[in-house]
Design brief:
about 250 residues, alpha/beta, TIM Barrel, 8-stranded parallel barrel
């Protein structure tokens, strides 16, 4: 199997990292550029920055923050928040993002994925799915930073996104986000059954064992915030645990 990627996530609001539980009760977790530099030094394979207030404020992710991160990073950077059109995505890529993540706007107009993939290539397009459990093995897509539920089935939406040209799926369990209870493994398995795209598991990791579980459930990459922001574990700790479980990981950049 290909090497599993370890991806710290920076949820950013007003130029600062924030972290909450189930998308609410946000607390300050540091300076984005400073943390980005630290995570790369610890062996992060990629970094994801999500501007959590961009959609609600009808704007795109902060270009200044993207540029500041790019100055600190040599690893790939995915940026999401307020991506509503090809022009917005292009501005983020020009500012230093390697990939753009789209969520709310694509859920409201699925043709946005087609347009983004046609313009920039599917390798640049990440569909972020915030999934809320509905019981009986079903999950609904939430938008606007989890504030609004849609009628979209999260599993079916992931399959449609693949057919429209998305390059990978950032799959976040709202119910597990910030809880440290582990990833929603049934959700990961359900999406794995219907798509061939890489899946980034997100929401709930408390330790490397949770990340091993996510990979066994079908994830190609694991994303986390709290355990890295709080210094509970380093990326290097996670890579060591995955390697011990016979899961291939990438060597840190020299």
């Amino acid at each position: 199997m290909p090497a599993v990627r370890i991806i710290p996530c920076l949820d950013v609001n007003d130029g600062r990292i924030v972290k909450g539980v189930r998308f609410v009760s946000l607390r300050d977790a540091g300076d984005p550029a400073e943390q980005a530099r630290l995570y790369e030094a610890h062996g992060a394979d990629e970094l994801t920055m999500l501007d959590v207030s961009a959609t609600a404020e009808a704007r795109s992710a902060s270009l200044a923050t993207v540029r500041a991160l790019r100055r600190e990073l040599s690893i790939p950077l995915t940026v999401g928040g307020g991506v509503r059109c090809v022009e917005t995505a292009g501005a983020l890529l020009d500012a230093g993002a390697d990939k753009v993540a789209v969520n709310s706007a694509a859920a409201l107009d699925s043709s946005l994925i087609d347009r983004l993939a046609a313009r920039f290539g599917n390798q640049c397009i990440v569909l972020a799915i915030d999934a809320a459990a509905m019981g009986r093995g079903r999950w609904r897509v939430a938008i606007r930073s989890g504030r609004e539920r849609t009628d979209l089935d999260a599993v079916a939406w992931s399959a449609e996104a693949e057919s429209r040209g998305a390059g990978e799926i950032l799959l976040t369990s709202i119910d597990r986000d910030g809880t440290l209870l582990g990833y929603d493994l049934p959700l990961v398995r359900a999406v794995r059954e219907v798509i061939a795209l890489p899946i980034i598991a997100s929401g709930g990791a408390a330790n490397p064992a949770h990340m091993v579980e996510a990979v066994h459930a079908g994830a190609d990459a694991v994303l986390a915030a709290s355990i890295f922001h709080d210094g509970t574990y380093r990326v290097s700790d996670v890579k060591a645990a995955l390697a011990a479980a016979d899961i291939p990981v990438r060597e840190p950049n020299p």
